[in-house]
Design goal:
heterodimer, A: about 400 residues, alpha+beta, four-stranded antiparallel β-sheet, two-stranded antiparallel ribbon, B: mainly alpha, two-stranded antiparallel sheet, 17 helices, about 70% helix
Chain lengths: ~400, ~450
């Protein structure tokens, strides 16, 4: 059989530049880049033409102009002769204030409700479930308006204020709280408090080390409580009661003295903390349920009681699951505080992107600054989150 | 060996019978009264329920006014004023949509409900056609039905160079502008021919590419034809839309546009082409980092500045664009979660079979990933549905806005009008959101059935 044909050289496929992966990837990316660049150029050119046509001067000069409007709540000195630049900071501080207090309340509500949902008590866990389902399934704006128009506006007039143990009065103009007045010598009390906290931390550190070395436990919690509360109390008595409480008094149609909180602030705070609290409750529940039942059983079989089991075994593991989504809820709360504009709480968005935008007409600068502020807050938080995640992530082989 | 310490000489006393552990009594004892702490919790819960439930029942049912034609009937009642809701119901659902034309939104609601039911019920047949109808045909049909259609189209491509419109004097047949369609047909033919030659020059299959271009152009043409055709419907401006109609239009548009955009962005974020990845990441992180309300402000106040002078965009459309971009970023993250859950072996197996990128994604990875994230998509939709309330801040009247506007109607000024409005809105929002969340849980159970041990 000499009839063997030489294997013919494989016929080259008709190949093209388009099927080469390298050229393809360059082509696609170049194409995308050009499309995006052209789109940006298109928008910017239009923006320039439109601004020129409407005689709007661009630039940030308006930040130095006098604002000429009042803001009902301000943490720093502000009046209508202040500049728009100051409005920016007044609003930012108001946003941070309501967010910070809201975060504290939301966390408290969330942990209470989340743990209640896991309670062995059937009634309590059902109650917590109903709370979570109702609150999560209603729009936040609905809840803000409800608290503002439905609850706080429906409160009695100042003369018939509802008193909460004399510490606070609720009426249709908001809430009046008792105000502590710091006289001379209060500084010492503050220092004592600080010293108590520092000492408590030191005691904890020392007790931990001693227990590691000798196995002897030390009543850390009792000592810390004594230090944190006892020292300031001692200082308070020694200095001759420098802090007095100013009780609000009803004079005529309104209250004298005390801290006055606007109804807008109260409504926004209530809505934000109950709403976010419901989401946090679900996160807490999921976090605790994520800890394997075997962990609890193992710690019980080692002889640990319920308290130490929770404190040393369950909670540290649950926190690893809870904290990342918890942070994003905090972030959501901060972003959602911009809904204040609907009820007129002077938060950053309302005074800056609302009033200032209306008065100056500098839409591009103001909205860009507003977005930049929120973007900075959220990118900052998420980068902190990533750091934390890297530290807390399980180290596996 | 008699020093045994203890020998029982009489029968031990009887132990008390064990507590009932079965039946309702045992259940109550175990779950509500199993210790002083548990009893305290039960007591606290009972007090809470007693504080909340009776007043609610009284307000909604027992003290409520059920019949009446005006505010007089509700003035003395301490419960809900349901005649107010009855009288305003049309406004709450349609806004100021002309009463004679309300059959149009009704038809849209009905179509939407039927198509959606077909998509959502796992056993319903024809899923693919259903999806095409819902995501492709339904939005255009809804746009024509709600707005009236008969858009005026002027020039396509050639018309910008050759003054066809002036030559044909704007002749219209059934609402179709002749000059535009002449322009469209000629331009399309030129494009198809050009694609054929360019593809051939680059060494690709000219015929195939040209056919693809032609299909795309025919699709665009069909959509434009539907939009341009005069169906004889009375035009209804979007300013007249309102209530639940706007709520649903905004949320459904958001979900329909954000799904494809979100899929593309998620693929872009996982792409190994650096520029594609960077653009996707920037886009996603930007929109996720700002509150929706700034996006709506951006769309309302800044968008007109960035468009060519003279081109005005409808107020509702501006809000829709903002919502679509915003929810696309969130959708992208949901889809990315699904993509990450698909083992790499799936992609590798598809590559080994010789499938290209789009085939791998479209036929192997995406179907698995999307099934996994249906609950996430539904949750996203719930969030979007709740967030549509924010459009009231940019002066559009959705359900909440319409109800809020009705509070100030002097004809219905009663002490309970405000609470009735909130009670009604709350029930409507709750039914929608709660229903969707139950659905997502049902799907989750269904899809995880195979993986559960």
């Amino acid at each position: 059989m000499a009839d063997i044909t030489a294997p013919s050289a494989p016929k080259r496929e008709r190949s093209s530049l388009l099927t080469n992966p390298r050229t393809r990837s360059l082509l696609i990316q170049g194409f995308l880049f050009i499309v995006v660049a052209v789109a940006f150029w298109f928008f910017i050119a239009n923006g320039r033409d439109n601004l020129a046509a409407r005689n709007i001067a661009t630039g940030f000069g308006f930040l130095h102009q006098t604002s000429g409007f009042d803001i009902s709540q301000s943490l720093i000195r502000y009046d209508d002769t202040s500049t728009y630049g100051r409005v920016f900071f007044v609003g930012l501080l108001n946003t941070l204030l309501v967010s910070a207090i809201g975060i504290v309340f939301a966390t408290i509500i969330g942990f209470i409700v989340g743990i209640s949902r896991l309670s062995k008590n059937w009634l309590l866990s059902k109650l917590a479930e109903v709370y979570v389902e109702v609150i999560r399934n209603l729009p936040l704006l609905f809840q803000i308006l409800f608290w503002y128009l439905g609850v706080l506006a429906a409160m009695p007039a100042a003369r018939q204020s509802i008193s909460l143990f004399g510490l606070a009065y609720v009426n249709n103009r908001g809430v009046v709280l008792v105000r502590p007045i710091f006289n001379e010598g209060s500084g010492v009390v503050g220092l004592a408090l600080l010293a108590g906290i520092v000492l408590a931390i030191l005691v904890r550190w020392w007790a931990h080390r001693r227990q590691m070395q000798t196995g002897q436990p030390f009543p850390v919690i009792r000592t810390s409580l004594a230090l944190v509360f006892g020292l300031p109390l001692l200082a308070f008595l020694v200095m001759g009661a420098p802090i007095v409480i100013e009780w609000p008094e009803l004079r005529g149609f309104n209250f004298n003295g005390g801290i006055r909180i606007t109804p807008e602030f109260v409504a926004l705070l209530l809505a934000l903390s109950t709403y976010t609290g419901a989401f946090i409750a679900e996160i807490v529940r999921a976090g605790i349920m994520a800890v394997n039942r075997g962990q609890t059983e193992a710690s019980e079989s080692l002889g640990l009681r319920t308290g130490p089991t929770l404190r040393l075994v369950v909670v540290p593991q649950a926190l690893r699951v809870i904290i990342p989504p918890l942070t994003s809820q905090y972030l959501n709360l901060t972003k959602n505080s911009s809904l204040a504009v609907a009820i007129g709480y002077p938060d950053f968005f309302a005074v800056f992107a609302g009033t200032t935008l209306n008065q100056t007409g500098q839409a591009i600068e103001i909205i860009a600054m507003t977005m930049a502020v929120y973007l900075t807050i959220s990118l900052f938080t998420s980068s902190l989150m990533n750091l934390y995640n890297r530290r807390m992530a399980l180290v596996e082989r | 060996m008699s020093d045994i310490a203890f020998i029982r000489r009489e029968i031990a006393p009887m132990e008390p019978p064990p507590m009932v552990i079965g039946g309702p009594v045992g259940w109550v004892r175990k779950n509500l009264f199993s210790g002083w702490f548990n009893i305290t919790l039960t007591a606290v819960s009972v007090v809470l329920i007693a504080l909340i439930v009776p007043p609610l029942l009284k307000f909604y049912i027992f003290d409520a006014v059920w019949t009446g034609d005006n505010r007089e009937s509700c003035l003395v009642a301490s419960g809900a004023c349901w005649p107010f809701v009855k009288a305003k119901f049309g406004q709450f659902v349609y806004g100021f949509y002309p009463i004679a034309e309300r059959w149009r939104p009704n038809l849209v609601f009905a179509f939407g409900a039927i198509l959606l039911a077909g998509l959502l019920i796992p056993r319903a047949p024809f899923k693919r056609w259903n999806a095409i109808l819902f995501f492709g045909v339904f939005p255009i049909a809804a746009l024509i039905l709600l707005g009236g259609g008969d858009f005026s189209l002027n020039q396509f491509i050639i018309g910008r160079i050759v003054p066809l419109a002036a030559m044909l004097h704007g002749v219209q047949i059934f609402g179709l502008t002749l000059s535009f369609w002449l322009d469209f047909v000629v331009s399309s033919a030129l494009i198809v021919v050009a694609t054929y030659f360019i593809a051939n020059a680059l060494g690709a299959e000219g015929g195939f590419t040209a056919r693809a271009a032609a299909t795309l152009l025919i699709g665009i043409g069909a959509v434009l034809l539907a939009l341009d055709f005069d169906f004889g419907l009375v035009p209804v401006e979007t300013r007249q839309w309102g209530g639940l109609l706007v709520t649903l239009v905004v949320s459904v548009t958001g979900i329909v546009t954000s799904l494809p955009l979100g899929i593309l962005l998620a693929l872009g974020r996982r792409s190994h082409l650096p520029i594609v990845r960077i653009f996707s990441v920037c886009f996603i992180e930007f929109w996720r980092g700002v509150p929706l309300i700034t996006v709506l402000f951006f769309a309302t106040y800044m968008l007109p500045l960035f468009l060519p002078g003279g081109l005005t965009v409808d107020g509702l459309l501006r809000a829709l664009i903002g919502v679509a971009l915003f929810s696309a970023a969130y959708m992208a993250e949901v889809v990315r979660g699904g993509l990450q859950a698909i083992p790499k072996g799936q992609t590798e197996a598809a590559n080994a079979l010789g499938l290209g990128y789009w085939q791998t994604m479209g036929r192997i990875v995406m179907p698995q990933a999307l099934t996994l994230v249906i609950p996430g998509i539904v949750n996203n939709f719930i969030g979007l549905f709740k967030d549509t309330t924010l459009v009231l801040i940019v002066a559009l009247f959705d359900l909440l806005g319409q109800i809020r506007a009705a509070f100030s109607d002097p004809d219905w000024a009663t002490p309970t009008t405000l609470f009735t409005g909130f009670a009604f809105a709350g029930v409507v929002y709750f039914i929608f959101c709660f229903g969707m969340s139950r659905y997502s849980m049902y799907i989750e159970r269904r899809t995880s059935a195979g993986r559960r041990r």
